[in-house]
Amino acid sequence: MRTIHVIISSLLFFSMVTGCGEDEPLTPPDDHVEPEGMALFTGGTRTASIFQGIPTDTLHAFVNVASDLYQVRFLDEDEELFELHDDGKTFGWEIADPSMVEVLQDAGREGTFEFRLRGLATGTTTVQFVILHAGHADYRSGAWPLRVH
Q1: Predicted confidence band at 135 (pLDDT cuts at 50, 70, 90)?
Q2: What is the pLDDT of residue 33?
Q3: What pLDDT score was predicted for residue 126?
Q4: In whole angstroms, what is the distance from residue 113 CA to residue 91 CA?
Q5: Residues 112, 47, 130, 105: is their CA dihedral positive or negative?
Q6: Which residue in 47, 93, 98, 138 has a CA-CA distance of 20 to 30 Å to 148?
Q7: What does the pLDDT average to over 62-82?
């Protein structure tokens, strides 16, 4: 019985010593921010946004016309804007009906956080934007309604 008390006392002492210190964490904290949403800008003006999968606007495209250039910025958990600064990440998209619209990127700018829309056929579909990293999506915007005129 005494052996059990010694073992329990030792375990309690060990857990108090190792669990209550101000030791350095195994991995140092960083200022990595995870996107909770994204905002689109054209010519420096915010034109559309989506936050936690809920869009505030419908995107529009026109048949056989490339849109103005959209620049993408991201929203943190407080809906504050930030730019993504990680060379290992690229921009991508998934269109529900790719026969209706296409996403274009200027030559030499593929994978960057900017794009144009060009309609292929009139109607409505959705687009989901993604941040790609190491072959998988680190972030998905949620389905954004897109109307082609």
Answers
A1: confident
A2: 62
A3: 98
A4: 6
A5: negative
A6: 138
A7: 96
Kindly indicate the confidence band of residue 113, based on its pLDDT and cuts at 50, 70 and 90: very high
| Residue type at 48 in one-letter notation | A
- Give the span between the Cα atoms of 114 and 102, in whole angstroms: 14
pTM (2 d.p.):
0.75
Q: SS in 3 state form for the chain?
A: CHHHHHHHHHHHHHHHHHHCCCCCCCCCCCCCCCCCEEEEEECCEEEEEEECCEECCCEEEEECEECCCEEEEEECCCCCEECCCCCCEEEEEEECCCCCEEEECCCCCCCCCEEEEEECCCEEEEEEEEEEECCEEEEECCCEEEEEC
